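Problem: given the chain below (491 residues), write out its structure.
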Amino acid sequence: MSGRALPCSPAEISSLFLFEKLSPEQLGRLCGEGRVERFEPGPVYTEGDPATCFYVMIEGTVVLYRRVGADDVEVSRTSQRGVYSGAMQAYLGARVPQVYNNSMRVTVPTRFFVLPAQSFADVMQEWFPMAAHLLEGLFFGSKNMQRAIGQRERLLALGSLSAGLTHELNNPAAAAVRATATLRERVAKMRHKLGVIASAGYDPEALARLIEIQERTAELVAKAPVLSPLEASDREDALTDWLDDHDIPEGWRIAPTFVQAGLDTDWLEQVAAAVDEDTLPGAMGWLNYTVETELLMDEIGDSTSRISHLVDAAKQYSQLDRAPYRVVDVHELLDSTLLMLSGKIGRIEVVRDYDRTLPQIPAYPAELNQVWTNLVDNAVFAVNSAGGEGTLTVRTAREGDRLLVEFRDTGPGIPPDVRGRIFDPFFTTKPVGEGTGLGLDISWRIVVNKHHGSLTVESAPGDTRFQVLLPLTAPDPESAQDDPETAEEPV
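Solution.
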């Protein structure tokens, strides 16, 4: 939008703090190459358009906006003379896309000194060459530092996740190894017992009955009910008494295994009825090995299933085998992240308050998992700083045309004097060496710039809530920024 052109007075623009140290010749050049324009209430320029001018306000009121999803969010409002905005990186030339990083409106008739972007770049290079070089170094150095530390943040998270995953995998893997070694021993004893039974000269019918009993016993193991400790104790006592009454050696040792397999005295009576009295002890020993091998195989199956589940969760978390942008169920992403971080979460109670009726949404799942990781990590740190006893509640809900993911912790809360800075790059409340100050900055970029959502925080002692709002629908992924940068707010 163009304003109404007005005469440019070197004396007037010299009263603006940006230009107060310039010489009369420099002021004359600015007035010669620039202009004064008066804008009526309304837009001056729009975010994303080519940055063609540098604006310095002489009088009036300006409001700056940033695009968040489909909304323009006000980020600054001022009536201070001399504030500036527009093509602020023009001196960098083609090395940086020269577009407006925000939208500017005026709310009252407002006058600006307007300098074309190329003229702004020229005077910066000619009049302040050292300052221009310093600014270039600061600009690109800051971007490179953010990128490098952001990568370190990801590596630190990966190291933490790897340690947690190793811990989680170690338990079922160790259980499977132990069960396999014990199973090999039991199978060897079963072969020996089978040899003893075969050498006793049993007729084919008796052996057939024993094999049938073995098969039916194995089926019972697969369907064994879960007993309370009291029920299991009572059944063990009953089985021990039965085995002692029938002169079965070491009945007290066999009974717990039979109970775990779901066997009871009625079943043992059926076994006793199928074989003669002399065969019964050997048959019971053989059945004991049968039950033990079935239970060990169940344990191995459970352990390997647990390992498979953890590997699937790791793949889901990393999204290594998935498209970078796709339709996802946020609950799957949240569960995989919580599982990956379970070692770090430790004894903190995790409550999943999910609305399972929520639809899937288009998103970058690997990057959302990074957001969940940062927010869970912060919540865990907060709870641990308050003694380690507390709760992390992860809630999902629908809010209009957006999906809410909320992380609530019972930590000490965020002090009001720092709450407004927690999303700033490099700001951290963690001790030196424990945080880079980029976790929330990266999370904000991913949620706001890449997903057109919002990330906010509400905090009080014992109740801190980070809320992520994501649109249920999103623009074409080609229009999303692949490497979003935090736009500067120059006013």
